[in-house]
Amino acid sequence: MNQLHRLSEYGQSYWLDNLTRDMIDSGELERRVSEEDLRGVTSNPSTFSSAIINSTDYDDQIAALVKDGRSIVEIYETLAIRDVRDACDILMPVYESTAGLDGYVSLEVSPYLAHDTEGTKEEARRLFAAVDRPNCLIKIPGTPEGIPAIEQMLYEGVNVNVTLLFSVQAYEQVARAYLRALDRREAEGKPVDNLTSVASFFLSRIDVLTDQLLSQRIVPEYKESMKVRPEPLLGRTAIASAKIAYQRFRDIFSGEEWEPLAKKGARVQRPLWASTSTKDPLYSDVRYVEPLIGEDTVNTMPESTITAFADHGTCEASTIVEDVEEAHTTLRQLEECGIDLELVTTQLVNEGVRKFIDPFDTLMDAIAQAREEYLQDSTSSQILGSGELKTDIDGLLDSLDEKQYPRRMFAKDGYLWTDEAEVVSSVENRLGWLGCPVEFAGRVDELTHFAGQIRDEGYEYVVLLGMGGSSLCPEVAMETFGAAEGFPELLVLDNTDPEAVRAVEEQIELSDTLFIVASKSGTTTETMSFYRYFYAKTVDRLDGSAGHNWIAITDPGTPLEEEATERGFRRVFVNPPDIGGRYSALSYFGLVPMALIGVDLQELLDRAYQPAQSSRPYVPSGRNPGIKLGAYLGRIYRDGVDKVTFYLSDSITHFGAWVEQLLAESTGKQGEGLVPIVGEAPGEPASYGNDRVFVLLTVEGDATGELVDHVSRLEEEGHPVIRITLRDILDLGAEFFRWELATATAGKLMGINPFDEPNVAESKENTRKLLAEWSETGELTAGEPVVTVNSLRIFTDPEADWYIQNQPESGSALFEAYFDSIVSGDYISLLAYFRQTDQREDLLQRIRHAVRDRYATAATLGYGPRYLHSTGQLHKGGPRKGLFLLLTSETRDQVNIPGNKYDFATLQHAQALGDYQALLSKERRVLRLHLQGEPEQGLDELFRIVNTIAK
């Protein structure tokens, strides 16, 4: 070890370029410090990746951290910080004996931050504080974006190891940044004698690249005619660059600019020779040690280089100051050979970042895999099967990682979905749902306390008045969880049919009912109509205390918030405004109703927290269930698979309505769209086209044998299948988050913005005009039917291509021509504008399945106006593959809406006609069937006709 000890005689310290827990725990590191004069340790993502993956030393801590709910990045940082802190403690005697010159251990910021100034500063501060040792150095790349961060961190008192320096120019910029930081501190009266920095100049990689370029220029046959021969320059670029950089170091840290700082106790920023293992076996294994010995330098070596130098290295002079002129000549001759060192070093920086990103990704993947294994008994499972498509999404997931999709997602980067600057801000204002599992976990006590008050006051019912995203999740909760013992029953009103309004009114006692009016905008026509109706009823019944029976959920600053406050509502829950309606399940819109019926919010959010933790930045996309699912859906969509068919356990069957809205409204635009199929009974394999993917969503313990067998047969037939198994119904918390993330990802791959709804307003505007017309004339313009079949009056556009080509004169001929327009890949939607009952639902399902089985065409079923806030966007903005049967009926019940001239029946009929007009304007194939008399009679007639055609 004499040669290692002798380095210090010439003013050079040697540090170890590796750190493992075994080295710390076994005493190896302490032995090297005490016996071999080791004076420091550096680490990087590559060394940590190797240490953690290739040993079992970290397994117990990883398991404990997973159990503690830590994210993958938090696990990595906790492991690394412990090792760095322990190593700092071992090296503390060196730090103290050298008065802070040596004894340092380095910890690197994420390699993904190499070009992120603000991110680097934030992480450097956090890591330095977390290690909490004065002999810790934070490694920051010396990129153009890294230099401002380096200066700021040094100014703030964070010790910095500047890494990835390959050129003399880059070194000079780093040295100047160090001086500026010291000047700023000194100008403000802050000490400058307690700050340490080294500038890591990477060596062997320079020779690897320049040697490749030089070798391409060797032409033995014509060597006599060459002005500069490349052969003698092989293997000389790195050492030449280091010698010149050292000369610049001596110039910078001397003279008028430096001396005043030196007198204040400031230390020089020592050059550190990094990447000192010899890559080329033709060269000496101590090639990057012997020529670079000198005062105020550090050489960080891997173990193999330390061993080689101790065995046969030479240390007899300050070699760094020798042959400087020759070094200048070398660099000049490189230029004459056509080697552009500036381009070379730029490439090396990019490669250097990549060389740290790759092992960092590998490490994240390994930790994610370990986390999955530890959690396999406490999370839902997901299996993606591609059937005959043989879809390989690994390359797609790698591409998402390459473009930092997960990190950008959680940074709420709107440019993921649009290049239009004016749209980006609106997208970024719709991404608050990403933080719901954490943010609303902090509000559980508040919600639980409020729900306890309502329970203790003896309320029998909670009536939620809402539409779309404001009502679907609460409905799922009530149908899935039910009301816990002692808690009120939840009723959801999202249908403007007078029968539906009356049904709620007849079921409740106003004084024992808490009403929730839920609207993100605070202006939703249906919701506000429900509100005005029932609020007037409570005022009549409860006089001045009506507000005590009302709460509101809305965004800040809406008309609803203002009115609820004025009218003395007992509570207004103001939701974060950056959460879109269909992504609001885990916000107040979903959680308040759940709390009121006694759902265990803490456990529900804990379940959601797990997939959220699996979705944090830097987690590889392949280990992220939501992103992987979304990538899969987006990928098979390119193969024409755009119908997502859900089969669900009985205990969670109503989840289908929520996910239907999420997928349809998010992806159905710009002529694209995933068509969700929910509530469909299993059919024979021949009933399905090749445009379907089947999602089997089940709960352990449910009787799902028939569904499992059915899906297995479909998979055998070549259809793609997704299997997700929940441990119990509380895993729905995880499913809300999984499908939100998957939908956002699918939208990315489909090239659409999944956070807007550009075609929803058209139906609303048509409805507004129709209601204005009704207010003036007392009538709604409905047009004339093209044909009447008993109780069915049938309307359509007589100028539609399918109609002109056939000119049907009878009801049967009309329907036959209509259905004959179906081509492969189409779907049909039944859109019913009346109250849902068991009998009506049964008839509609029979019609739906008859069409599906006859034409092997996906069929959906929705009720208006509810579907306008769910699948309506898809119908008008999605692909022109839909056929729409819009069903309206008559009603004898007149239920007035306070403050309006029209009643609920008129509103509902105007909404139906408004959407009918919107569909026609988009040149959709649409029939409006007006059912005269009781709806059941018309539906029975329709089924008879369809069933006859289907045969």
Topology readout:
Layout: H1 2-7, E1 12-16, H2 21-25, H3 28-35, E2 40-41, H4 45-53, H5 59-67, H6 72-97, E3 104-108, H7 117-131, E4 136-141, H8 146-156, E5 160-165, H9 168-187, E6 197-202, H10 204-216, H11 237-252, H12 259-263, E7 270-274, E8 297-301, H13 303-312, H14 324-336, H15 341-375, E9 381-385, H16 394-402, H17 405-410, H18 421-428, H19 436-439, H20 444-456, E10 461-465, H21 472-481, E11 489-493, H22 498-507, E12 513-518, H23 525-542, E13 550-554, H24 559-566, E14 571-574, H25 588-596, H26 601-613, H27 625-637, E15 643-648, H28 655-667, E16 675-677, E17 692-699, H29 705-716, E18 721-726, H30 732-750, H31 760-777, E19 787-789, E20 792-795, H32 801-806, H33 811-820, E21 827-833, H34 838-855, E22 858-863, H35 872-877, E23 882-889, H36 904-921, E24 925-931, H37 935-950
Parallel strand pairs: 1-8, 2-3, 3-4, 4-5, 5-6, 6-7, 7-8, 10-11, 10-12, 12-13, 13-14, 15-16, 15-17, 17-18, 21-22, 21-23, 23-24
Antiparallel strand pairs: 9-18, 19-20, 20-24
Helix pairs in contact: 4-15, 5-15, 6-15, 7-8, 8-9, 9-11, 10-15, 11-14, 20-25, 21-25, 21-28, 26-30, 27-30, 28-30, 31-36, 34-37
